[in-house]
## 1
Amino acid sequence: MLAVTRSVRHAARRLLRAPVFAAASILTLTFGIGAATGVFSLVDGVLLRPLPYAAPDRLVDLSHTLALSGVARVDQSDATYLYYRRESHVFTDIAAYQAAAVNLASPSGDAASAERVAAARVSAGLFRVLGVAPSRGRAFLESEDGPGAAPVALIGERLWKRKYGGDPGIVGRRLEIDGVSREVIGIVPASFRFPAAGTELWLPVGIDPARTESAIFDYRAVARLRPGVTAAAAAAELQRLLPRVPEAFAGRLTAAAIAQIKMRAVVRPLRDVVVGDVGPALWVVLGSVGFVLLAACANVANLFLVRAEGRRRELAVRRALGAGRGRIVAEFLSEGLVLAAAGGALGVAAAAAGVRVLRSLEAGISIPRLDEIGVDGVALGVAAGLTLLAALLVSALPALRSARLAVSAALNEASRSATAGRRQTRAQHVLIVAQVALALVLLAGAGLMARSFARLRAVQPGFDAAHALTFRIALPDAAYPVPDDAARLLVRALDEIAALPGVQAAGAVTKLPLADEARRDTAVFIEGQPPATGIPNVHQVAYASPGYFRALGIPLVAGRAFERPDPGHARLEVIVSRALADRYWRGDAVGKRVRLMPQGPWLTIVGVAGNVRGTALDQPPDETVYLPLVSAGAAAAGDAPGDPRWAPHDAAFVVRGAGDATRLAARIAAVVRGLDPAVPVYGVRPMTEVVAGAAARTSFTLLLLGIASAVALALGAVGIYGVISYVVSLRAREIAVRLALGARPAHVRRMVARQAVAVGAVGIALGLVAALATTRFMATLLFGVAPTDPATLAGAAALLLAVALAASWLPARRAAATDPARALRAE
């Protein structure tokens, strides 16, 4: 151990005598190790680390699919949840939940300071299923989760500290939540972020077994498998139970319908559902930074080789005086270890800073579990492993070359420039070829993402986001128990906002396009077109005000908009999207009729709206049925279509301004406060931001790949420059002789440039082969471009070739300016 310490100390002293070499090597390794450590922390926190619950491998998500219509996910109805929980024997328990948001009154009682808070409505067993207990107080009792139960709530630790200053007397205190006074019975730890990272309040879901509707699937369910039970076995049992649900709970879902639509139970690990589809992007980014690390190591190894060549005579003398090969090898390895350790330490610091930046961008890049990432012990262990690997990679080749040094030949060399033998530069060329190949793979990946991003941004969403502002308001059921009262407030708000100076149009809708909001799909019955299977198709339903289409710039391609709303009097009319009109009536839909319930009233189509990409930019336009916003208010009395649960208590407003619509935000908030001070205005943002958010994950992946490819490109350019400069220095006598014999400087410049191009061309050729093999893994991340797009690959190759030429320009210019007399005199 003492010998190792002494060797490392001597290596550090030698490196201090070569500060430029040491600084360049450390900085290069910092990029490589830091990027790899930071992205590994991201992948580990999001994809690899178990969920922060007890025995997370036994937690599963319960859902269904509709094989007939291709619907990938259908959640639970109250009936299926209750029946599965009562009859299944493969779970220790099942819990239901719904993501929600609530109005939380100010602690001071000031109605104007009410806050919109992310919440969840959960069944009493949720915390038991997940194996999490409140840090103070207790969880919900079964008696508190049902109709008529005492109103209670659980509050998150972050909200407790932020809004109530960590008051220890919060447990037992009553808070006004959505107009209802609820007793706080416990505080949930800050580490518990279920079902979403921002959830800060938990309320009982309150399912009433006596009033279920088996055909409305608006609950999610999580269950804990019994020991020894697999997800496949659990799915088989639920599939056996599913046809029996209609016998136990009356509703619109029948056993015949279950068979006709080929409804299937699905049991998936909860972690897979939480993570979603972000995995491919993160694995691609991790592979990319792995390439960056390899390129960095190749660059530093090249620097080592150049330095080792400069020490040939010194090493030969030491060998002649009795220094063993092992000692020479140990010196190089210890220097590599010192450089890698310094680069690793700085890389870990850079990775920690990068992770903090990523966590601050959580809301903008749509990556789940981002709050859980960090440079922890696992990441530090990986960084230590990468440091040792880098130390070996950068020093092994120079060490082996020096160990095989021919002492007599090295001592007989008249000078360092006596020969430029191929043996001396072959290793450097191999490393440069590897760097160029890696850079091309990264450039190809970044190019594909850039083209995808450009195609995605070029997609027309179907509306005009410029000069449009959106915000939301939510009216508590307790304060507005009669839907028509809620409708009247919405109508007044729209009228007063539309009258503000600078406002061109104002509207409201229950599902804002491209916003991260749950879809509201329901069966749509078409008059005169009975479904062949007896089961109607499912389409999105949204409630919209008359001004919504003009405010968002959605054109009406046929018919008219809704008439001015009259709360309490439902109009049996709808507007459909062009995609829906084309599907059923070849575009000629005005005057046709649809209905949303088998025995409900027929609704006349009065207009056809332009297509809108409401779910995602890379998805086809939604087939949507728009109902008048206030008609939903009369649904409770059975006078209008729809379901009373969809009464317009929560709506997104869209306001179009003459200029910058964000300047209207303060006046809009004042209008809402004037109508009801207890109703907060939240989610205020320009519609351009909503559209940008729809491409956030693509832009995030593009950013990381772009940085990786830029670093690799820079390393490749530096490597080519260094090697060509070194070769030129070795060939100084040859170049001087050529010039003395009459060679023109332009000929010398071409000779040097050809060597750079030759090395680059070999790397490009190998890189193209590697890119064709690796970019296929990006297929799920791309939009409108093939993984092996010839234009992108050709562009990456051309860029690298140009970089190779640029990197050789200065050495070539220096070589062409050689003074033959001075060079030969020096020889």
## 2
Amino acid sequence: MVKITINGVERGVPDGISVMEAVRFCGADLPTLCFDARLRPIDECRMCVVEVAGSSHPVTACTTPVKEGMNIVTDSPALEETRRELLEMQARHYPAEAVGKYPEEPFHQLLNRYRIECGSELLTEDVDESHPYIRADWSRCIRCYKCVRVCDEVQGQSVWHVVGRGREARIVADHGAPLGESSCVSCGACVDVCPTGALEDANLFKSGTPTDWTRTVCPYCGVGCEIEVGTRDGRILGIAPVAEAPVNKGHLCVKGHFAHAYVHAPDRVTEPMIRTTDGWKTVGWDEAATFVADRIRDAVQKHGPDGFAILGSARATNEENYLTQKFARVAVGTNNVDCCARVCHAPSATALKTMFGTGAASNCYDDIDVAATIFLCGTNATENHPIIGARIRRAVRNGAKLIVVDPRRIELAEIADVHLALKPGTNVLLLNALAAVVAEEKLYDEAFLNERVADVEGYLSFIRDFAPEKVSEACGVSAETIRAAARLYAGNGPAMMMHGLGTTEHVQGTEGVMCLANLALLTGNIGKPGTGVNPLRGQNNVQGSAVMGCEPGGLTGSQAIDTAAERFEAVWGAPIPRKPGLKMLEMIDAAEAGKLGLLWTIGYDIFLTNPDADKTALGLGKLDTVVIQDLFLNETAAAFGTVFLPAVSSHEKDGTFMNAERRIQRVRRAVPKLGNAKTDREILALVAERLGFGEQFNFEDDAAVWDEIREVWPAVKGITYKRLEKEGLRWPCPDENHPGAGVLHAETFPIGKKAALRAIPYLGGHDAPDADFPFVLVTGRTLYHFNAGTMTGRTANPEIDPPDRLAINPTDADRLGIQTGDLVVLHSRIGSAELPAVVSPTVKPGEVFTTFHTAKVFINRIIGDRRDRLSGTPDYKVTAVNIVRSLES
């Protein structure tokens, strides 16, 4: 700390900060139009001028570092006159009507504060409305260049450019393209920082300014960005990032920022419905809840308690998922409860719990800024976790080294120091080869191995057989490249691993994550800042849904049933079944075999998203009852639903979400519930009451549910709603004085002082290509679309980027006579799908890629039912296909 004087008051401020930051640290402020704490200061607007004793002229606070004993004046007649003159210069070229129409803009507030009139010398009236979300009115541009800088320094896209000089300077996208035709990724950062509204949310331009703002959490991916939801008259008009949010730090992606129209979509279902021979019949909640309760009794009478199964939801809150698994275990008496984590990161949870004792990320997002090397395995972060992707890109710009393991040349591969473009399905082979290099070249951390790792000698003996020269041909990566990656990860620490569904959605997905853990243990990259093994979770609360106990083999907190059941029974006042339940795909198997009578799905379109859709359809079709709880009549409901229970979006309820770094964050209601829809908590309570268990589900509010969670799960005992009002907290957090854990396993592991290395053989077993099916299909998500398209498909996102196109290498496309835009038919060993092609060098010859966002394409009709043998997770990443041009092309 250094001592300085501000306006006659001596204060202590951190050393190394600017005068601007010091003033703000002391709770005061200075006028500014070009400053943003995330950006390099450029001294452009000069509104933040201050007087410093000993200086012959005023200095800009944003570019002047504090010094011990500095005496600063922020307000004086001379300074005020300087600011007035600067504003008058800007005002001459500024439209007066904008100031009256948008008084809340920072520039307009300053003009009004200094009573400055404007508009005498307008330079331009250029308006760009080519983008569905961002409107540009360049007559309001004051050349602060914040849009250019935030796009470059925070998002890293560098879309905006300055052409010309002085008053002739102007800002253009991609050197002149309309914004809607540019390389813009629609994150909206330029809109957020613009002090005039020259760049603004197009929806707000049309609908007007919100009257209320509610702080909550983004409903899309598992990054967990905090947002401010702007509303008026019960409707969402716009969304903005929370500037001080610890997760996203004032930044959002296109989905979080703009893709909210689904909340008020005209096809929202807001009344309960029961299917009759004449179609869907609207009923009241009493009739619907009684109907479901009676059908549950019928299923139990026919098959026993295990004739019932329920699926929790990544769209639901922690509290609602907790009640979902409690409902299965208390109101019905079965462990047949699961969630969509089964088809994505169940391998991560299984592997990390096996290896370390905790089935969640070992580190936190802030460690990206600490890591000297970042190792990405099977995660296209800039598209699927855009805020993390942008942060990784910034880390690389600041000197971090980057290793990318991905069959495709994704965006981050373009800036990687090493890109391991492996053959799909060979993750275990490649990761073992990396470990073999570490062992052979003695790159391991011997002190860490001696203190914290078991079974070292046996593992080192096993791993010799995976030398890069032996396996390079099989995994499609040269031995030299494998060795370079191993040396970089082991030799340039701290090194942080992050992985995604390209690692987990394989027949050896769990073992692939265990191989990552082996590498971390070998090199000592665990238990320290900037290290660890960290899954990037796909949906907003998929981490929370599983950890809350929507998992057939574990209770809340991933606590084993056989060891934790008594604690839960004491709180719940009811016995818990000890027999392990069915995993999600096993539920479909049981339905097909006639052993399951009722399946209840909450916020989860399993028909569209499960592999082998025909097999899923066969199972669903044999059920007596399918209960759908959702916002829309999804594909499962339309084809197989017996009763539909209308739920609300996260913007219509309270609770908490858990992000991928174990952070619990508050969800807050921003708009009233639409129509007669109810929260998942309310719906579960209605049915539980009719089954005679109303007392166990009678909670005053969501905070009361969370308090019960704190009783049964010691790791969140210290996380209260009161503490969460300020900001989210990461578990474990055992008491209310604990700050929450950022780094796990620092001194020991939950399984003991030492973690054991595991010898993981490469088993193959994926859907191998042959002469009839010569291509390998990989599936995944893309930036503008999300999972089954339930949400993003009801927004303007498809206007920017139409979903579900087949990426094919130019060499293959030329040989097959395929051009971008042609319709092609994919045939696998179980089915076919038709979709447009896009010729792209991002995929290698012999490999193709597509997304799974639309029912029109229904790509999961051709994905087989191969599963991870440890977690039961489907292999979505390796499907042998052939390709023919459609007759319609």
